[in-house]
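If you are new to this repository, start here. Below is one unmodified record pulled from the training split, so you can see the exact layout before writing a loader.
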Amino acid sequence: MRQLVIDSASEACSVALLEGANVVDYRHEVIGRGHAERLVPLIAELIDGGKAKAIVVGCGPGSFAGVRIGVAAARALALGWQVPVHGFSTLALVAAGAADAIAAAGGALVVMEGGHGQWFVQPFAANLSPRADLRSLQPDEAVALTDELVVGNRAEQFVARRGIGLALAKLPDARAFLRLPPGALLDQPSPIYGRAPDAKPMAAA
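And here is the target side for that same chain:
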Protein backbone atom coordinates (compact mmCIF):
# COMPACT_ATOMS: atom_id res chain seq x y z
CA MET A 1 0.00 0.00 0.00
CA ARG A 2 1.33 3.42 -0.93
CA GLN A 3 1.66 5.86 1.96
CA LEU A 4 2.37 9.59 2.02
CA VAL A 5 4.58 10.61 4.94
CA ILE A 6 4.71 14.26 6.03
CA ASP A 7 6.77 16.07 8.65
CA SER A 8 7.05 19.84 9.00
CA ALA A 9 7.61 20.16 12.75
CA SER A 10 11.21 21.40 12.49
CA GLU A 11 13.25 23.59 10.15
CA ALA A 12 13.05 20.69 7.68
CA CYS A 13 10.08 20.22 5.37
CA SER A 14 10.07 16.53 4.51
CA VAL A 15 7.67 14.36 2.50
CA ALA A 16 7.97 10.86 1.09
CA LEU A 17 5.93 8.34 -0.85
CA LEU A 18 6.48 4.82 0.46
CA GLU A 19 5.35 1.52 -1.02
CA GLY A 20 5.96 -1.41 1.27
CA ALA A 21 9.61 -1.18 2.29
CA ASN A 22 10.57 1.07 -0.62
CA VAL A 23 10.85 4.84 -1.05
CA VAL A 24 9.01 5.68 -4.29
CA ASP A 25 9.79 9.42 -4.19
CA TYR A 26 10.69 12.06 -1.64
CA ARG A 27 11.51 15.71 -1.06
CA HIS A 28 13.52 17.03 1.89
CA GLU A 29 14.28 20.73 2.24
CA VAL A 30 15.72 22.66 5.18
CA ILE A 31 13.79 25.90 4.92
CA GLY A 32 13.67 27.24 8.47
CA ARG A 33 10.40 29.11 8.06
CA GLY A 34 7.73 29.16 5.38
CA HIS A 35 6.23 25.68 5.77
CA ALA A 36 2.74 27.02 5.09
CA GLU A 37 3.84 28.15 1.63
CA ARG A 38 6.14 25.24 0.80
CA LEU A 39 4.57 22.04 2.17
CA VAL A 40 1.68 21.51 -0.27
CA PRO A 41 3.77 22.39 -3.38
CA LEU A 42 6.43 19.98 -2.13
CA ILE A 43 3.83 17.20 -1.93
CA ALA A 44 2.55 18.11 -5.40
CA GLU A 45 6.07 17.63 -6.80
CA LEU A 46 6.00 13.95 -5.84
CA ILE A 47 5.02 11.23 -8.31
CA ASP A 48 1.24 11.30 -8.97
CA GLY A 49 1.01 14.51 -6.98
CA GLY A 50 1.78 12.57 -3.82
CA LYS A 51 -1.53 10.70 -3.93
CA ALA A 52 -1.54 7.63 -1.70
CA LYS A 53 -3.85 5.10 -0.06
CA ALA A 54 -2.96 6.36 3.43
CA ILE A 55 -1.30 9.39 5.02
CA VAL A 56 0.88 9.58 8.12
CA VAL A 57 2.06 12.85 9.63
CA GLY A 58 4.54 14.00 12.23
CA CYS A 59 2.57 15.52 15.09
CA GLY A 60 5.50 17.17 16.85
CA PRO A 61 6.75 18.32 19.17
CA GLY A 62 8.50 21.13 17.38
CA SER A 63 7.57 24.49 15.94
CA PHE A 64 4.00 25.36 16.95
CA ALA A 65 3.25 26.62 13.43
CA GLY A 66 5.05 23.77 11.69
CA VAL A 67 3.21 21.12 13.71
CA ARG A 68 -0.20 22.68 13.00
CA ILE A 69 0.56 23.10 9.30
CA GLY A 70 1.61 19.48 8.86
CA VAL A 71 -1.38 18.06 10.73
CA ALA A 72 -3.85 20.35 8.95
CA ALA A 73 -2.44 19.47 5.51
CA ALA A 74 -2.56 15.74 6.26
CA ARG A 75 -6.16 15.94 7.46
CA ALA A 76 -7.22 18.00 4.43
CA LEU A 77 -5.60 15.64 1.93
CA ALA A 78 -7.06 12.61 3.69
CA LEU A 79 -10.51 14.16 3.47
CA GLY A 80 -10.08 15.05 -0.19
CA TRP A 81 -8.67 11.67 -1.17
CA GLN A 82 -10.97 9.74 1.18
CA VAL A 83 -8.08 7.82 2.75
CA PRO A 84 -7.11 7.11 6.38
CA VAL A 85 -4.70 9.39 8.22
CA HIS A 86 -2.55 8.60 11.26
CA GLY A 87 0.15 10.37 13.23
CA PHE A 88 3.53 9.72 14.79
CA SER A 89 5.93 11.53 17.11
CA THR A 90 8.48 13.70 15.34
CA LEU A 91 11.07 12.79 18.00
CA ALA A 92 10.48 9.12 17.19
CA LEU A 93 11.10 9.92 13.51
CA VAL A 94 14.39 11.61 14.42
CA ALA A 95 15.38 8.49 16.36
CA ALA A 96 14.39 6.32 13.39
CA GLY A 97 16.71 8.37 11.19
CA ALA A 98 19.60 7.25 13.41
CA ALA A 99 18.32 3.70 13.92
CA ASP A 100 21.59 1.89 13.21
CA ALA A 101 23.66 4.16 15.46
CA ILE A 102 21.08 3.89 18.26
CA ALA A 103 21.01 0.09 17.99
CA ALA A 104 24.82 -0.03 18.17
CA ALA A 105 24.87 2.29 21.20
CA GLY A 106 22.11 0.43 23.03
CA GLY A 107 19.89 3.54 23.07
CA ALA A 108 20.09 7.30 22.72
CA LEU A 109 18.65 10.61 23.83
CA VAL A 110 16.85 12.69 21.19
CA VAL A 111 17.32 16.43 21.75
CA MET A 112 15.45 18.93 19.58
CA GLU A 113 14.87 22.67 19.69
CA GLY A 114 11.88 23.44 21.88
CA GLY A 115 11.63 27.21 21.66
CA HIS A 116 12.05 29.86 24.35
CA GLY A 117 15.47 28.51 25.18
CA GLN A 118 14.18 25.03 26.03
CA TRP A 119 14.98 21.67 24.46
CA PHE A 120 12.62 18.76 23.82
CA VAL A 121 14.25 15.60 25.15
CA GLN A 122 13.23 11.95 25.08
CA PRO A 123 15.29 8.78 25.52
CA PHE A 124 14.84 5.85 23.13
CA ALA A 125 15.89 2.23 23.53
CA ALA A 126 17.95 0.28 21.00
CA ASN A 127 14.72 -0.92 19.36
CA LEU A 128 13.51 2.72 19.05
CA SER A 129 10.81 2.36 21.69
CA PRO A 130 10.59 5.36 24.07
CA ARG A 131 12.21 4.75 27.45
CA ALA A 132 10.47 7.71 29.10
CA ASP A 133 8.00 10.45 28.30
CA LEU A 134 8.84 13.53 26.29
CA ARG A 135 9.98 16.53 28.36
CA SER A 136 10.69 20.17 27.60
CA LEU A 137 13.66 21.30 29.71
CA GLN A 138 16.04 24.19 30.10
CA PRO A 139 19.48 23.18 28.76
CA ASP A 140 21.06 23.12 32.24
CA GLU A 141 18.38 20.66 33.37
CA ALA A 142 18.59 18.56 30.22
CA VAL A 143 22.33 17.92 30.46
CA ALA A 144 21.80 15.99 33.68
CA LEU A 145 20.57 13.14 31.44
CA THR A 146 23.28 10.56 30.92
CA ASP A 147 22.84 8.84 27.54
CA GLU A 148 26.16 8.58 25.72
CA LEU A 149 24.66 9.03 22.23
CA VAL A 150 22.66 12.21 21.64
CA VAL A 151 20.67 12.68 18.42
CA GLY A 152 18.81 15.68 17.01
CA ASN A 153 19.15 19.28 15.89
CA ARG A 154 20.46 20.30 19.32
CA ALA A 155 22.67 17.24 19.87
CA GLU A 156 25.92 19.11 19.30
CA GLN A 157 24.99 21.93 21.68
CA PHE A 158 23.89 19.36 24.27
CA VAL A 159 27.16 17.42 24.17
CA ALA A 160 29.24 20.61 24.16
CA ARG A 161 27.41 21.90 27.24
CA ARG A 162 27.61 18.57 29.08
CA GLY A 163 31.24 18.05 28.06
CA ILE A 164 30.91 14.35 27.30
CA GLY A 165 29.14 12.07 24.84
CA LEU A 166 28.70 11.55 21.11
CA ALA A 167 26.53 13.96 19.12
CA LEU A 168 24.72 12.99 15.92
CA ALA A 169 23.05 15.99 14.28
CA LYS A 170 19.73 14.92 12.75
CA LEU A 171 16.57 16.51 11.41
CA PRO A 172 13.29 14.67 10.78
CA ASP A 173 13.35 12.83 7.45
CA ALA A 174 10.11 11.33 6.14
CA ARG A 175 12.00 8.39 4.63
CA ALA A 176 12.95 7.22 8.14
CA PHE A 177 9.31 6.30 8.72
CA LEU A 178 10.26 2.88 7.36
CA ARG A 179 12.36 2.29 10.51
CA LEU A 180 9.70 3.23 13.03
CA PRO A 181 8.47 0.34 15.22
CA PRO A 182 4.84 -0.74 14.69
CA GLY A 183 3.71 0.75 18.00
CA ALA A 184 4.79 4.25 16.96
CA LEU A 185 1.61 5.03 15.00
CA LEU A 186 -1.02 7.26 16.61
CA ASP A 187 -4.64 6.61 15.68
CA GLN A 188 -5.54 10.29 15.49
CA PRO A 189 -3.14 12.93 14.16
CA SER A 190 -3.29 15.63 16.81
CA PRO A 191 -0.54 18.17 17.57
CA ILE A 192 1.98 17.22 20.25
CA TYR A 193 3.23 20.57 21.51
CA GLY A 194 5.46 19.31 24.30
CA ARG A 195 4.97 22.39 26.45
CA ALA A 196 2.24 24.84 27.40
CA PRO A 197 1.11 27.31 24.71
CA ASP A 198 2.61 30.79 24.74
CA ALA A 199 -0.78 32.51 24.71
CA LYS A 200 -2.71 32.48 27.98
CA PRO A 201 -6.51 32.98 28.24
CA MET A 202 -7.52 36.28 29.77
CA ALA A 203 -8.73 36.04 33.34
CA ALA A 204 -12.41 36.65 33.81
CA ALA A 205 -13.14 40.22 34.79
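Two things worth knowing about this chain: The first strand starts at residue 2 and ends at 7. The two ends are 55 Å apart (CA to CA).
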